Amino acid sequence: MTLKDLNKKPFIRLRHVALAALVVAVIATISSFGLTYQDLRTIEWFSLACELVMWGCLALLAYTYIGYPIVLTVLARFLGRRVEKGGITPSVSVLLAAYNEEAVIQSKIENLLSLNYPSEFLEILIGSDGSDDQTAEIARAYNDPRIRVLDFKERRGKTSVLNRLAPLAKGKILIFTDASERFDTQAVRRLVENFADPKVGAVSGQLMMTDSEANGSSRGVSTYWKYEKKLRELESRLHSMLGATGAIYAMRRELYEPPPNNTILDDVAIPLGAVQRGYRVVFEAEALAYERATDKGSDEFKRKVRTLTGNYQEYFHLEKFLSPNTIHVFFQVFSHKILRLLAPLAMIAMMTASFLATSPMATAVLSAQIVFYCLAFLGLVIPRGKARLFSVPYMFCLMNTAALMAFFRYFFLRSGIVDGRGVLWEKTKENLGRGSVGFDLQGGGDALQLAGSVAISERVAFYLKVKPVMDFALATASLTVAAPAMAFVALAIRLESRGPVVYRQQRVGRDGKPFTIYKFRSMVVNAEKNTGAVWATRHDPRVTHVGRFIRETHLDELPQLLNVLRGDMSMIGPRPERPEFVRNLSQQIEGYNRRLSVKPGITGLAQVHHKYDETLQDVRGKVKHDLRYIETACLKTDVKILLLTAKKMIGRQNPN
Q1: CA separation for the pair 460, 634 (Å, rounded)
Q2: Where is 488: in which H helix or E strand?
Q3: CB-neighbour burial class of residue 87 (10 A; exposed 0-12, middle 13-18, buried 19+)
Q4: pLDDT at residue 286 tops 70
Q5: Which of 369, 395, 368, 394 is nearest to 379 (CA)?
Q6: What fold characterizes domain 83-303+320-330?
Q7: Strand, coil or helix: what is 601?
Q8: Are residues 390 and 375 in contact, defined by beta-carbon separation less than 8 angstroms?
Q9: Which of 266-270, 565-569, 647-651 comes out lowest in average pLDDT?
Q10: 367, exposed or middle or buried, with CB in 10 Å at 0-12, 13-18, 19+?
Q11: DSSP 509-557
């Protein structure tokens, strides 16, 4: 078989690897039934197998994060290629897709207009992606022929906007950027001088993270960025980067190949198009853009989940990197991208294997892991921790948790990744404040005002403050343990009926903030097509056979562990309701909105004491329990609720 044949025919796919790993896990789970933990530990071959898995996973992680950079350094030193730069000034077109950027769009335009580059060779194309603020109006206010604004009335997704802007560009070089970052005045000159080399197809600049008030999270982010930028520099020197920095990168206009509108990472798909055509993608360290490092790990977590989900999308077909033009970057793709995606699974497997193995070395490895995760925990709970001893383990665990979530998001929630027109990005922002909150539910019309709060003691307030740490740990552990059961449920749903395995629905969270909840689909497809939003009844005919079982055992709620990891939900709290129901119930039940002063939960005091909501009286009863929980929340109560939930799941009693 030739490379040409491999490029046409599927060879290795991440889906095959993922499914194979899942099958092995399921078989191992089934085969272990009937054997106690002590039985397994006394079986010599089992302990040996666990040690082999442990050392294999440790070797994979060591190579991915330490070995690959060392190998890359050696290869770049002896096989690296120089870029023949030149003092050229070709015409350039800056492409900017913006969504609700009224707060920064003016300063961004001013920044671009102040660049040290001949004004007659510079144009700026701005696409407002369905913005419902003043983004387009502010941009249009500039009476400058170099600035062109396209105002798309409906959201299309960033990639779709770029695909519309690129054909309108007049410049020989396309420069891509985002609204929030600021260019150094010499940035464009530093980018374009690389195009004097005819082998260079795209150039990535460098994003500088500023953290003048660095806490443990931002310091960890800064360290992570430095590590990543060093890898990109080495890969560029060897041959090509595997993408670019979305805040600042450039490409020859004739090489622009419009990626599919559902592309998640334009800054990976677009540069890779140049690599597939035989050109290099290089790193320019002196082309600088600036952005303030986030003070919140949750912001970086959301950004990383999106990035890693996009990596699954881009590197889904490994065969495209086996063509004559890309075979030389396959080593980089496998070492930098594929193994990174497998790293969180290796971490889980190593922890499990070292726990089950009996040798002194396995005990030592287990102890080392416990110490490492304790340091990561300290990096989470110490907000002003300055020592990398805490921040680096914390960021390492945060990134790998994001990779694990991206795995589930891509393979099990793929229908929710993209809109029919393209990927719709979610801007990172601070949480809304508590108290009187106004918000606009998407598609819900006027903003709904929520007022009032629940009076709680200092003890309860402190517990609610530290509870997210417990939520994160418990959700991670639960997701690991529940993975085989989730695989069986997903398979059963798929075998019984067509349609998505995971159902996505908008719910109202803390302070009235809308979010997307995940559940295993328990009803027929389009169950509310003719009825609209209605409560499910106990013997609802829309519920499938599998759906009835998973609702009675509460297995349909397992995907909500991802909501907990995202920070949308807690393990325990009031159940989230749909926006339509919140509007109606807040008018009919006094104090209903006070439930929204805390994060909603997968289970809660109301859920373990009540059945499905079938009448308004049922809801009133649940509200009383919800408010009682908010006023008296403590660790003892949460443990009791978890035990009662487990009892109901096993006994299949009164599902919620």
Answers
A1: 7
A2: helix 458-496
A3: exposed
A4: yes
A5: 394
A6: Spore Coat Polysaccharide Biosynthesis Protein SpsA; Chain A (3.90.550)
A7: strand
A8: yes
A9: 647-651
A10: exposed
A11: -GGG-EEEEEEE--B-TTTTTTT-S-PPPTT-TTB-HHHHHHHHTTGGG
Phi, psi of 530 (to 5 degrees): -100, -20
Q: What is the pLDDT of residue 183?
A: 96
CA distance 234 to 221: 20
Question: Across the beta sheet with 200-210, what order do the strands follow?
Answer: 147-152, 122-129, 92-98, 173-177, 248-252, 200-210, 280-292, 182-183
Tens-digit pLDDT profile for residues 453-473: 555 677 777 788 778 878 877
Domain boundaries, the chain: 3-76+340-412, 83-303+320-330, 431-651
Residues 224-254 as b/e (b if ≥16 CB within 10 A, e otherwise) read: bbeeebebbbbbbbbbbbbbbbbbbbbbbbe
- Ranking 50-59, 65-74, 219-228, 414-423 by mean pLDDT, the lowest is 414-423
What is d(CA 150, CA 140) in angstroms, rounded to the nearest whole number?
9
Cβ contacts of 486 within 8 Å, gap of 6 or more: 412, 520, 558, 559
Higher pLDDT, 530 or 257: 257
Summarize pLDDT for 20-63 with one digit per residue, the tens.
Answer: 554 455 444 444 444 444 555 555 677 788 888 899 999 999 99
| Residue positions counted in the chain | 656
The more confident residue out of 619 and 152 is 152
Residue 534 token pair: 């209605």
Contact 174, 93 (CB under 8 A): yes
The more confident residue out of 176 and 531 is: 176
Angle, helices 14-31 vs 339-356, to 10°: value is 10
Please say whether the beta carbons of 238 and 80 come within 8 A: yes
Exposure of 590 in the CB half-sphere (CA atoms within 13 A) = 0
Q: Which two tokens stand for residue 4?
A: 């040409």
